[in-house]
TrEMBL record:
It comes from Corallococcus praedator. The lineage of its organism: Bacteria, Pseudomonadati, Myxococcota, Myxococcia, Myxococcales. CDD domains: AdoMet_MTases. Pfam families: Methyltransf_2. Signal peptide: none annotated. This is ArsR family transcriptional regulator.
Amino acid sequence: MSAALSSSPSALPPREPTSPRALLHLLFNGARALDVVETALGLGLLDELEPGPVTLGTLATRHGFVPQRLYKFLDCLESLGLVQREQPTDALEDTRYRGVAGLRAAAEAVLGPRALERDREKYDWKALHGRLPEVLRGQHSMSAASFDWPPRTPEQVEGFEASMAAGLGPILETFRAHAGALWPSGARLLDVGGGDGTLAEHLLREHAALSVDVYNLPATEALVTRTRERAGLPQERLGFVGGDFLREPLPQGYDALSFVRVLHDWPAEVARQLMQAAFAALPSGGRVLICEEFRTPERLAAQFFWSYFLIGVDACSSRLREVEFYLDALTAAGFRDAHVRPGPFELVVATKP
């Protein structure tokens, strides 16, 4: 067995960067590529490929596949950079494959039945498709009926908050990993722009001594009430404070204050002002928690839909920024020990002296 395939998945040799031409070939065949990955996920092939190595002959026998056809199917996965192949002999059945680390979980997250990308399909992105030259020249825009920012109608508010709740999985994973260091026992947390309270509900289920108030526009109160009643939580643990953080000081009386996917939706100066408002609202020793869309290649790829969709929406800035922007702004606001805690969504934490 080769060294590459006998080592752990994380030790696989690095893949050569995809050339612009190869990338465009794959993008043009995007629908067919997704068909291949969805099929591999549905058939359970990814469960066998990711630990690997596994031979083509073994896969063909287990699943009743025609070996020559399976070989070409696996070529498709290899072209996408999702599997690596070693062919020690001319016999197709001897060809060995291994999926890249995290392949099964990634496919489920992006293509599974509850995938965030499927949720995004409900937005009217087709209003821009094929008309980008007009959109870029300001001659065509997304209609307010399709998307308005901030959301104005009850239907828009509910739809937007539902989309935000659908993407909470990796954020919750990060909070779980670090929760013991984020707030003291018996803490009160203010979740600024906390949507329909779904994040608060999950945190409350896992931390019996915690209480959370969602601070959001009054139009979202009914959504938070629905979340609280569905979860069977008392109002003392999951509360709601209505307000507008663009026009009012942030409420006081909390041990910690969180911004989760909030600050990137506003110009830099507004984001800085909100961090300063957090400093003013927190007591000495209080913590601010920022879980954001930081600007990394991975996050840009995950945000491709919104980058595309919001080309036609001038009211929403939605700027992915480098994490240093938040670290510097928190320090300038007066916080100390601003640092990044790792996770699927990195978490910036800082403390008021």
